[in-house]
Amino acid sequence: MKRPSWNELQAVKVIAGQRSFSRAAAVLGLKRSTLSHMIKGLEATLGVQLFHRTTRSVALTEAGEMLIARLTPLLSEMDELLNDVTASAQQPYGTLRISASDAAIRLLLETVLPAFIQQKPGIEIDLVAQGQLVDIVAQGFDAGIRLIEDVPKDMVAIPLSGPLRFVTVASPDYLTGRPTVRHPQDMMQHTCLRQRLPSGKRYHWEYKQHEQQFALDVPGSLTLDNSALMVEAAVAGLGVAYVPEPYARQGLDTKRLVRLLEDWTIASQGLALYFPQNRHMPVALRLFVDTVKAVTSALN
Fold it and tell me: N or C: which terminus of the chain carries fewer CB neighbours within 10 A?
């Protein structure tokens, strides 16, 4: 059997990712008709159909799913090999895909990325904001960024931030005429902006002072699944929010938000960049890790 070409295999990967021949052709810089002819030729060579095609959609067949599952890591390893070979002789290149929370992406934009993009212009960064913890290997990511305590045990974790405090905030307008807040239990008398976790469960607000600790299922008529939106709702006077401190910092600095229960706080260990330990590290990821370590060391 004639072996498929590198271009044909790359085309299969791109079509599978784009779920569209037109979009894939644009990514590959080909005419749609040329790409369609290429895939038909490949299917004829292999003797199997790789894609179900309709006028509106493209989906992988069972054979196509099998091919992509084995093909994607092989193509990634080949890209990494070629990058490793050429990196010493020229500007490193490649795409670094990272799954992260929006808080982590904000932190990268403020700290690591300005230096990295300036020093390594040939490397593209593809950041995907995801609220839920995902399997970064299965979903084709090079790395992820999450709270340290949420990083899977079989991953290498590089600290990205110091401890991350959670704060309780509300707008001055909301607080006017409402009960004073001196103790976590006072939250039960307020309208709170509740948070839905990726698992679907509602988050219980956590407070700790010395040996006392509370986890409250607070009352409220509005539930959100995004900390940035919770801050916006708090600024608008819709209730009390409980969020990681970086989200509330601007509102606190501009006096649009007031911090409550300052003596009652709980902190995460902070954010970490993580990636598989039993896998060859791409040049782009290795250089990114070096920049993360340099930036965090300078900040600390």
Answer: N
Token pair for 21: 């021949």
Q: How far apart are CA 271 and CA 145, in angstroms?
A: 7
d(CA 179, CA 23): 56
Find the helix or strand (DSSP H, E) in which 182 lies.
Answer: none
d(C-alpha 246, C-alpha 169), whole Å: 12
In angstroms, rounded to a whole number, what is the distance separating the alpha carbons of residues 237 and 60? 48
**DSSP letter (8 states) at residue 250:** H
Q: 94 near 297, Cβ under 8 Å?
A: no
Residue 46: its H or E element: helix 32-46
Give the contacts of 249 (CB within 8 A, at least 6 positions apart).
none
pLDDT of the chain, 300 residues: tens digit per residue: 677 787 888 888 888 888 888 888 888 888 888 888 898 988 888 888 988 887 777 888 988 888 888 877 777 667 666 666 555 555 667 789 999 988 889 889 989 999 999 988 888 999 998 877 788 887 888 899 998 888 888 899 999 888 888 999 999 999 999 999 999 999 999 999 999 887 788 999 999 988 899 999 999 999 998 888 999 999 999 999 999 888 899 999 999 999 999 999 888 888 999 998 866 677 888 899 999 999 888 776
Cα separation, 144 vs 269, whole angstroms: 16
Strand partners, 193: 222
Q: Round to whole Å and give the CA distance between 60 and 51.
A: 4
What CA–CA distance (Å, rounded) separates 140 from 196? 27
Neighbours of 98 (CB within 10 A): 21
- Contact call for residues 138 and 97 (beta carbons, < 8 A): no
